[in-house]
Amino acid sequence: MKEDAVPGVLVEFIEATTPISNILSALYYKPDKIIFIGEMGVVDFEKNNAAILKEYFHRKGLENIQIDFQRIKKDKHDRNNLGNAVSILEGIAKEHPGCMFDLTGGDDLNLVAVGIVAERCRDKGIHLHQVKPTLKGAQLVNCMDGVAVEIPGDVSNSIKEHFALHGAEVVGSYQSKDEGFQKDVDALWRICSKGTVTAKNQQSSISRDEPTNLWNRVINFISFNIARNATPAKAVLDLNRKEALQMSQPMFMGYIKRFRQEGFIEDYELSKSLLSIQFRKDPHIIRCLTVAGAVLEMYVYGLIKDQYPDVAACVEFLWDEVFDTLSGHDDIPNVRNEIDIVAMSNVKPIFISCKNGAVSSDELYKLSAVANRFGGPYAKKILVATNMGRVFYEKAPDDEKQRFYSESVETLREFRHRAKSLNISIIDNIQDMDAEQALAEIKKHC
Q: What pTM was computed for the model?
């Protein structure tokens, strides 16, 4: 398909809510010119996206590509606007013989118009195709003969390029090839997922909590008096604050001693009930010891960072009215969002949310909203969790145990059903998998 049909001019029907569809054909065919066509929204699209597209294509080595925008104007005498659409498309076909129409973003009316033009302009050698999302990424489907071509691996986007196409800017993320830090993360994850000797010895008589839940209590207590997003060198904790500690002092100190043994804490001093901790001067280690879910994020990031062309954790991005103007909501101010992990598989974004503890349905909606807005049908959505499927109802009163158990199971069933309806894959109990099993499970859903 590519060898016998390389268009000099590509005609794109604007797909405002799925920008990937607007650029795939250009990346594959590398035409001399792109004509973006739309109706009412084309003016806003040009205003908000012309500079973005020009910069994007420049980065992709297509700095000489010409970009044009044409609007199909409304005609009060033609309620369906079919006449205007045919007139404009026929004019393009006659002016640019051999051009290609990408029908991906076209509505029914425009598709009818293209059909009419294709019949009228048979002698102009025009080509018709569509872009379709697939499990691997996307396909170009020739509408004339039905032949489909898989988009090759060298047609890809970085995380920053992907968000830029959607009118957003990545303002923060974590990426590292430091093997030393990865070893630290693996050690922290072992403590989080397996617990400590002290915790295991006391668990049978004191708590039925899983190690990951105990980890959350330890980290939450450490961060109790530490401001979010700070990177303190030292913290002083009052162990008498049992309402915040939520575990025995010996169990808590077992974790502190283990942190010291592994070198995550440089030193600590216990004076009566006051515990002074000297953290290792590494902001990423400090974050893992002060944000309960950070170690799971870093662990999953470490598993997949070499599996895809571009992977980042703690991805923070800012988007403004650029995107929402296309949908008619131009009064929305700048919005800041964060996603735990983003990976790019060629042009397909993979959004991963990591939850080391309780998960509410709100998390499903947050993940779905971000992925749909910044990936649409191309996006993969994955929730990685610990212990989500385990119900510990022993703490309930004897006469309430069965009701508590039944309600918990039903709530979990509803949660999984809701996730499925949102096309979110769930990977639960990752703490019970070794690294190879966990990676295989994640890749299975990508």
A: 0.86
